[in-house]
Write the structure tokens for this entry.
Amino acid sequence: MSKINFSNHQSTQDCVVLKFGGTSVSTLQNWQNIQEIIKGHLKQKRKVFIVHSALSQISNLLTQVAEDALTDQHLAGVTKFKQQHQNLIADMGLDENLLEEIYKDLEKVLQGVSLLNELTDRSKAEILAKGELASTIIGAAYLEKTMSESVRWLDAREWLLASRGSNIHKDYLNVDCDAEFDEELTGAIAADDIIITQGFIASNKKEETVLIGRGGSDVSAAYFASKVAAIECQIWTDVPGMFTANPNVTPNARLIQRLSYVEAQEIAAMGAKVLHPRTMSPVRKANIPLRVKSTLQPDQPGTLIEKYPSDLQGVCAVTTRDPVTLVTMETLDMWGQSGFLGKIFAVFSQLDVSIDLVSTSEAMVTVSLDHAQNDLSDEVMDKLSNKLSKICKVKVINSCAAVSIIGQKVSGILSQIAPSLQAFETNTVYLMSQAANDLNITLVVDRDQANKIANSLHEYLIGSKGNTDQFGATATEMKRLYEGLETKVEVASTWWEHKAKELIDLCPNDEAVYVYDQETLSKNANTLKNITAAEQIFYAIKANHNPEVLQNFYKNGLGFETVSEVEVQYVLKLFPEIERSRILFTPNFASRKEYAAGLKTGVNFGVDSSYPLMHWPELFAGKEIILRIDPKTGKGHHAYVRTAGKRSKFGIPIEELEALSIHCRKHKIKVVGLHAHAGSGILQTGHWREHAELLNRCREWFRDVKILDLGGGFGIQDKFHQVPLDFAAVQKSLEEFKKEFDDVAIWLEPGRYLVAEAGALLTRVTQVKTKADQHFIGLNTGMNSLIRPALYGAYHRIVNLSKKDAAITRSATVVGPICESADVMGRDVPMPDTVEGDVVLIANAGAYGQVMSSSYNMREPAGEVVI
Ligand code: ASP
Ligand code: MG
């Protein structure tokens, strides 16, 4: 083991290790991309250390060729091997004899296999190694020919030495290597700018070729990064990075921007295929940042894996492993007898089958077996069953899958999973296990249910989170961005797209403005009015109290829901002739004085706590009121918009209703309505019906109730991939309810739904700036006008209106001018080339925009225009 010499260590030039996979090194065009990436690093005065795989599909081909050699049928495969390499050599204009020696060596080993009629692990390793040797010889020759810097080809086997073998195929096919800082290696490459070597291969003490395991080039890169004390190890692949779920199954899966080593390892081990699970350990030990990047989107930051960022917590991914086999073992007559576990585990060990998860009860043990780690052929499983059935009753369930929730201190989120447990109503969970390291909770379920369950868990635990530092764009958005580089980004058309020119003219030069579209306001009012099962719709004016907006809704027959006495007076002043029954007032934690004043106005009055009724009963005597009940489960896109549950300040707990009903009767307070509201941004059609049922049950204590106010929270389509709320289905579900209970009127009180989409914030670009791999676009206004991104992590679509039809060229962080790090309007925003003065539109800003604005930093917030 070489000792670290710090003075020497520090004087070496910064070195970055880049790993490229098979696809990335298979064509001339991809090599040109690699060259650009290398140049970027050289410009920053870094030494570039490249580790790469065999050409695409070559390792599979060589595995087959090795088998074929046993029956002397390897010739066709060898020809294919040569052909693929010669094609690339020809494309690159390199010497056609470049690989003569490799071809000869390969033929020699294959002949040996053929003659001896024996394929040892040792010769398998020799044969497979030819793939990486051949590809790196081509790579080095190409770079030497095309770059002016010095290029050095290394034989990885001279520098990577197997330590001890892993558990399968111990000595040749799956080794671990030593990876301490290597002074000799850094010395050897001191004079070179570009170093290129093989992934996947190493040597053992006997100087024989050994392999690191399939997909092992990632691990090689991590070993070399540690050996040369690289400043970063970059794994270049054809996906944008690690996602919070499998993007093929969950289009909502979000790119993970930052991750700790342990989480990344857990995600890789639990089924994600982006990184080899063994990659993390060497870089973690040496504390070298690891970054996953895509050759298709080199400007994107990808996923950065580093030492426990202290601000990260909670769930970072939901993964699935499929298939998984389950074995349940029930004790026969050995009930309570010691040594049962030992006996059954010994059977697994004899057959070299490693157990993944275990759960035990007094008389039963269930284990799961991972197919990726085991040979679970019929033969092995038969043997296993036979042996086990001598000591217990065995049952094997083959068609299972494991769904894992991954994150630091993951047990802490168990309570959040509750709403998603609906997914399990009709499905069996065979086994549930919480990892001892508290990094995963895994459920073994039926194979055909796994994706559905994973999607549901993902939606609840991750999908609903807004912009955070940790999670970036969704897989669908990334795909659109990438496609946008070639074709125009295709988006659902909205009102502001047709009015782009008018809006650009409206946008002031040095300020910002909110624009509200009358047509869209009316359209939204009509959508809600189509829920004819509801007698009255009250617009929650706190979302936006612009007088022209209110005029529109007034004309459309909506009522108004208010939350302060000032709001009540505002509505009364704006519409002096309005019937009092069209106004609803539900204060929360307001003063006695405000209650008294509100009650005097004669509007519908909601009480959302027992306190006012218990302490100031005289205010309510002889009055009719509506009680706001806590429906227990909050819903919505962010914790701050969920308005139910014991941690929320709203609503009367159901447990208090009985006592409260007695109290009300005693004081002649007439409860005529019951109300519940769970949050904002709800897209489940059944939600309002659930509230109806719940409130209906509470009528048991309040005989005079004739109104059920089911709240609001109707979600809008914030992101492309979201399925818009099906209002026809909402109507149908409420209609059904009404059929059964026709003695109550249904009220709804939406806010955001009515105005969000109808409003946009317009402002101009002030500056742009690039810092490392982050590109910033600055705007004339920020959180002083629109605080939702900072407050709720809310997502707002951001569009460069001046360049509406231009090609998307990069992903940017769009920021305002406020002196706060939280002044970010959006991250990973797909943008065209953007310059100072361009008009930028922030969409869906009609709700909780202007009303929540401030003049923080003494910057006036955006004004308002209605068109
Ligand atoms: N070429 C090897 C394989 O296909 C190693 C790698 O690509 O990571 O498994
Ligand atoms: Mg790979």
